[in-house]
Amino acid sequence: MHWYSLIAFLLLATPLFAQENAATQKLTEQSKQFDEQVIQVAENVYTAVGFSVSNVSMIVGDDGVIIIDTGMMVGDANRIMAEFRKLTDKPVKAIIFTHSHGDHTGGSAAFIGNERPQIWAHKNYGSEAEPLVAGGVTFQRVRGARQAGFKLPPEQRINNGIAPVRYPRRGGQAFASGDATRPTHFLEDERTTIKVAGVELELVSSPGETNDQLFVWDPTGKVLFAGDNFYRSFPNLYAIRGTPNRSVRLWAESLDKLADNDAAALVGGHTRPILGASKVKQVLKDYHDAVQFIHDKTVEGMNKGMTPDELVEYVQLPENLASKDYLQPFYGHPEWGVRSVFNGYLGWFDGNPTNLFRLSPKSEAERVAKLAGGTDKLLASAHDALAADDNQWAAQLADHLLAIEPGNPTAMQIKADALTRLARNMVNATARNYYLSVARELREKTQ
Ligand SMILES: [Zn+2]
């Protein structure tokens, strides 16, 4: 390398790495949310943070304990149970699932002893999990693995935004299933009060992240167990792995219901609990306001005729919310929430008739290449974009090239490089994992 190209490289590279550090440092800092610890959140209430993907809580009653959520894998759950056993040897009388996602239910076998506990869940439990399609919508699993970074080497994964890095075991007991861990009792109505081991708890229907979400209110300890309607990150109003539409309106409503309780502790489905009545109040208000804002402002823009691409620029979270540490886009992202609100009300058509029957990607790309003066010019532009650190544009140009010639190794390489650079500056863990996973897939294809 000549000295002048070295200087050019350094000039080009320095701001890139500086930015890279800002995003990755912020995301790395978030990993403190999953330092392994059993936290006492009230006199008889403990939450195990960081041992598994989700939080697992224990309420100690007169003659038994109640477990809220069970973590993702039995191995992690066994370690949690061992920690809980240091605090009490009372039997597990009940398990409550805040919702049906595997990271909250998979560890159940670790908490079921000889005496079979009651297992409580929402009446909609699991109804969104398996779409009623022969064979299932299997591509969701491919996208899910990309979002979680399951195929990335450990050094490329920082965390999952709201959870520590885990790799599900193939074939093994990743998710417990079978009769022993299926719910036995259901929340049929808006709310119900249960009494287990002398402890009175209120279960409240709270659709949001899923339609089978419930929250648990412990009036004695003044603890709220919010499930995944709350964690310390901007909420995942849309998951990029692809999920049924999450009602942003109902999510905001459920946050209102959470805030109605006079709580001194707020235990989210992930990340460390919020402790202290005034702090809980503030956090729930901000969280609600952020979700409500995304909903209301998007509807306002929709009613002006804006398309999703325009709405993501129009809807900007106010600074007093955007600056909060528990609303940083580590897991969910405001832009994806905006698109999800639009999609939930109006579906895929953005309202612009040009888009009713678009040119195929190949037809469009061929015309763009012609305009540019040929595919070679397009390729040169993609290289230039990459050199200028204009990575989104480089990826879009590479997509045109790949539409014309799907197996073009140079185009795949450009796209892989562009995605890798986008990942470096990305504070959102799911987008980061997705970029890096697809970059890896592309590089494997070129080898
Ligand atoms: Zn979760």
Automatic annotation (TrEMBL):
Pfam families from the entry?
Alkyl_sulf_dimr, Lactamase_B
**What EC number(s) would the UniProt record show?**
3.1.2.6
Q: Where is the Metallo-beta-lactamase domain?
A: 53-270
| Superkingdom, taxonomy of origin | Bacteria
Keyword Signal present in the record's keywords: the answer is yes
Q: Which UniProt key words apply to this protein?
A: Hydrolase, Signal
Which N-terminal residues, if any, form the signal peptide? 1-18
Does the record carry Hydrolase as a key word?
A: yes
GO MF terms listed in the record are: hydroxyacylglutathione hydrolase activity
Write down what this protein is called: Hydroxyacylglutathione hydrolase
Q: Which gene encodes it?
A: gloB_1
